Amino acid sequence: MIRIFKWGDVERYLFGRNSMSETVEKRSFDGMDFKFMAAYNQYSEKFDSAENERQSELNDLINKLHSKDIDYDTFYAAMATEDGDRYQFHRTKINTSRKFAYRKNERKVDRIKRHK
User: Fold this and answer.
1) Degrees, nearest 5: CA angle 14-18-19
2) C-alpha to C-alpha distances, 27 to 10, 22, 55, 59, 60, nearest whole angstrom
3) In this structure, is the dihedral angle defined by the CA atoms of residues 82, 12, 25 and 21, taken in order, positive or negative?
4) Is residue 114 part of a domain?
5) Which of 40, 93, 98, 99 makes the best surface tag, with the fewest CB within 10 Å?
């Protein structure tokens, strides 16, 4: 007996995912605090412009965040992996000196310049 399969059945069997014609629905949550609401807004913006596979990844991320399996830093890092739009904080070193030491150094530099 020969059985003919549709591609969606084969894809579901082989890869464990839905076919491309099926859509992924956006999640919604009740009773969100401020931090989660900000993360949800970021999720919502990315979800609207994403493909089906990325949408399911985003759903998985927001579910893990809601159940507190991951923290906010991990969530935002995973959200920005594809776009590279996450701001990476960097600190520049500020060299400081006391007023007396600064003036002493300035006098020394001036002397060197004057006698060159």
Assistant:
1) 90
2) 27, 16, 10, 7, 10
3) positive
4) no
5) 93
